[in-house]
Amino acid sequence: MSLVVLRVELPAHSHSFTVQAPAAGTVADVKEVIQATCTGQPRTTGQRLIWRGRALRDDERLQDIWQPHEAKTVHLAVHPTAWTDRPPTTPAAAVSTSPVLPTPSHSMEQPQNVARPSEVVSVRDTIQERGPAYPPSTPRSHPVIDPLAFVRAQQEMALKALTQDTTPLPLELVDAPKAPSVQFVEGLGWKWPAALDSQFPPSQPGGVKYSHTTIDGQLYLKLEDHSEPSTPSQKHALRVLSHTLEILKAAPVTAAPVATTVAPWQSPAVPPEISALLQQLGIQDLQPNVNVQQDAQIPIIVPIPNLPAAAPQPQFRPLLNLLPVTFIILRIALLLYFFAPARKPVMGLLLVGWGLYEIWTRHVRVAANPAVPAQRPVAAAPAGNGAAAPDVNQNNAQPVGEGAQANNLPGLPRASVAPVETFATVNLSAEEQMLEGNATGQPTILKKAALFGMLFLSTIHPAIWDRRRALLRQREGRIRTEATAMRAPDDGTDSVENQQRTERRAELLRRHGQRPSWVQSYVQRVMDEDWVDDS
After folding, report:
1. What is the total count of domains within the chain?
2. At 515, is the secondary structure helix, strand, or coil?
3. Is residue 469 domain-resident?
């Protein structure tokens, strides 16, 4: 009777072991073997075997669950009352040393057809040539899930099918989750290959023969005998490899800094003729500096230059882009229902035109604000290594001022900044001239009412309201600064600073005296904080 080897994982106690069961047996036979071999000898009635997220029934046959070439691993859950002896002890948690997986890149190619059987097929070329993002000795407090573990497992299974290898898969690839791999592939804009979801056909004798060979330090499969046709399992393996190799090529390569060591500096020997000349001139002979450690090894981290920055993974969110347009259409339909465009065609045309303008504005906003990550500033070199910080070009930096603030309005494209700035600065220039003492007369009631109505309607827009409030706060801050300078007492000294302060105060008092009474009352309200918008 042939036996199969099953690996049993007991996560509750961090314990794993292997058992041997008849190949034609059932799950109930495996439970009996577990009761006889597992530490604590749990009863079969209290055992539950879980495989790929589902509990196995006692009457299920092993040959119906696993293929002959698959790795057989189950998880064991034991009821606390089913232990007949002391259960396995939980070992101390070890620190994981899994390397950090780099962020996916987008420089990839579409999957191509695999090479003919007469060519050399690379083995693990995309796995061995990529090192970890951190040295293996760096401790990591939490394990990192590899999103391509399922793809790597399928590639290993395909390679074993080509070589007709029956050894089990590595433990880190057993029962690898498929969802992260599907999400990674779809995030690249590709469609998930159907070949990775289908099962491998049963292994058959014969077929094409491959052998392992090493070329330039890399492990490859070399075609040895192709006199016989490929088996169905080998054909399926070639289809799987045609997808897995291209998917693993799309995984990014994070280059670690190259550590170099500076050779020890040796003091050059002084020629005899120079020593004799220095002695004649009464100068002390050149000696090496004894305070410097000559054989010190100075490690310097040299970053690899000209590496392309990792681009963000593209996000395909058609629903979020269509949702605002859908709400615009619903609002237009609601307005058309109330205004009856059949009886008022002019109003209907205006509503349709307004809707088209809103949709166009939404399109311009999305096109003008792409999701581009902010560039990080160049860090300065450490002070100890004597290197200077790289020169940062400031020619293109925008000066801080009203123009810079207007161009940085949140949520608005650059084309919408000019209308916002126009409505936000209504009558501000005229008010500035009045504050300078150039007021010709107090505005009339009609002008005040017209200005109030226009500001009331325009400041409904949040961007216009925020911009005008910021400008008014700047003006009030300047007025309070001038008021503080006018109220500053004289310290009674004859210093230059005191004279300049006195002249400045006199100038401010003269200009304030030239202002009309209604402008002075506004300045007094600002100084007394009688009209401040703290919302």
Report:
1. 4
2. coil
3. yes
